[in-house]
Design brief:
The first copy, chain A, is α/β, with parallel strands linked by helices. Chain A contains 16 helices and 13 strands. Chains A, B: It holds the Pfam family Aminotran_1_2.
Amino acid sequence: MPTLSVFMDVPMAHKLEGSLLKSYKQDDYPKKMFLAYRVCMTEDGHPWVSPVVSKLRMQIAQDPSLNYEYTPVMGMKSFIQASLELLFGKHSQAIVENRVGGVHTVGDNGAFQLGATFLRTWHHDSQIVYIISLQKELHGLVFQDMGFTVYEYSFWDPKRMCMDPNILISVVKQAPRGSVLAVGNIADCNLTQSQWTKLMCIMKSKQIFPFFDIPNQGFSSGDLNEDSKILRYFVAKGFEFFCSQSLSKNFGIYDEGVGILVVVARSNQHLLCVLSQMMTFAHVLWYNPPTTGARIITSILCNPALQGEWKHSLKMVVENIVLTKEKVKEKLRLLGTPGSWDHITAQKGTHSYLGLNSQQLEYLVKKKHIYIPKNGRINFTSINANNIDYITQSINEAILFTMGL
Amino acid sequence: MPTLSVFMDVPMAHKLEGSLLKSYKQDDYPKKMFLAYRVCMTEDGHPWVSPVVSKLRMQIAQDPSLNYEYTPVMGMKSFIQASLELLFGKHSQAIVENRVGGVHTVGDNGAFQLGATFLRTWHHDSQIVYIISLQKELHGLVFQDMGFTVYEYSFWDPKRMCMDPNILISVVKQAPRGSVLAVGNIADCNLTQSQWTKLMCIMKSKQIFPFFDIPNQGFSSGDLNEDSKILRYFVAKGFEFFCSQSLSKNFGIYDEGVGILVVVARSNQHLLCVLSQMMTFAHVLWYNPPTTGARIITSILCNPALQGEWKHSLKMVVENIVLTKEKVKEKLRLLGTPGSWDHITAQKGTHSYLGLNSQQLEYLVKKKHIYIPKNGRINFTSINANNIDYITQSINEAILFTMGL
């Protein structure tokens, strides 16, 4: 009799994600379209790459002085330095005081993995994490798998069809003392200065630990400083925090996972202790992070002319997003689509809520072959001159159809 | 009063490794040398890169069709396929039967991380791991951190100054039923065919689960098939196992961590279940693996002419290692150094034991500024025409000096 498989008890895993993309790929309809790509797309439907990146790839491949040796566990020092300056500004007081540092990670998942591992071991106050629901699937799982209790919150109010920044304040009010608050893309949060101040006040009194996520600095306003302004405000107010800084999306290096787990501490001494512990975790997690992306980015950031080209390319992307949203709104207005569509232009960034209900979304997917995630948040860079009419007409149809139900 | 730091209880971490390299770097002695590099070195003391890799880097940088988009969680399919064929042979029955698969990982650490995560969840038999002591620091920690009980074993018998393949058999004899046996670089294990057969017999009866490590296929014998022969033997005997396959070292792409966690299962159905579970883990660990290295390697493996160039470069490396070991032995003989030095040429691979005791090693580090790890295992590719005389004379001195103690 043959022996049984060691794996006989292992069932097929539930699909985590990608099933929407899978359905899209299996669809034979010629006009099908997918509006849920994570990456920024170009006008002709390809993943966006900052033009200066392609130039650097060539330069690096031709450089005979590079030896592609193992990087230290901490990662590329020059990359970390340049990225921190991007986040906090060159003349940041915290950088001058040597109390800001980072570990080069395998993308933002790596940064959350490393941060969560650290907090599990050293954050004795609480093992509770509040996370924005958009990030739940990607980063919430990291915390969950490590035994944290994870609660979701969402900025989007589907009834009022707008972002509700007050949600963050009510989350913090109810959170137990010492909880971790994962704040997704702060530049898209829509909080006013006074709302941030109020939030900080409560966070400080309850010792809530912030874990920020900067997935694509520059893609909200087109201005790098503007997009990390709030982070600098937290530093100025004396907060200690972690921040996942990803540079894959805003350079267009998606296949590398170029990330940093940023640490802001009260003093250099605390920072060094935290980083030393993180190195022991990174040693076990991946030993040395991939450097191709980091090398490209460092070369760009350390050269003012190249950095200028890159910044310009970010501005162009954001201008295009703003224009696309305006066009979608205008086309819906011209079609006489019921409802106000101001919420589309009121949201910043590549991804925004369309503000459709589940029946309308189902209509778009099933009848019009337009693939949109269940939360109705689409990638606006996927909309271009070739498909904007089909998309807006379909949205109009979906709304008229479901009104009659 | 200022608030206290969140990190106030975090101490400085103990140094894991790298302190030998650090001491070396801080040493001002002009003739200092470091014989503990993990990577293969060239005659002129640089990390080795297969010449065909540099060529491919250029080609890939110039390719306008590449979009550097996110790879799927599983990684690059073509890379996995080509690497599995390298390991098991193109006409492997297991490949034909679709019961061999893999997940593209962030280097070998990633492969062990993923494998250990899986085993923690699904290997209910036992949470005990036996691991070769050389790998303890790198991979043993991965298991330890996940709560496995980890025992070390070593092939090297310092008294008899030889590799003792029987150690593996005695380890397996005493291991509890269902334990995991991590077997480092099988090509360097020195077991005879009949010893392997005996080992397999015990492993099968005790349901010991093998977790192989193929860190640099081709670097033991210069022949890829020869170096993975034993793995194929395990497949033929109906074993199910995991194998960490790293392609960083044998291509010379050290800064990328190009790895695969290979899974051999009894049937395609079992394989698919295992891979689906692994995808959920990889999703949390790193989401998408870095692809630069994988892309280069796939292009080489899928082109017979380029693959030929690569294989030739491996042969050259191995020929050079064999020659260096012969030279070291001969020089020690000519110096009249006491003892037999046959154990140097009897060992295969880039790294081999010198067979010195702790006093002799201390003498070399402290008096001669030759940096060698405590286990006395050095990287023979670090020895070249410029330093071989100094090294052999120093070894001779160390032995004469400690004989007089």
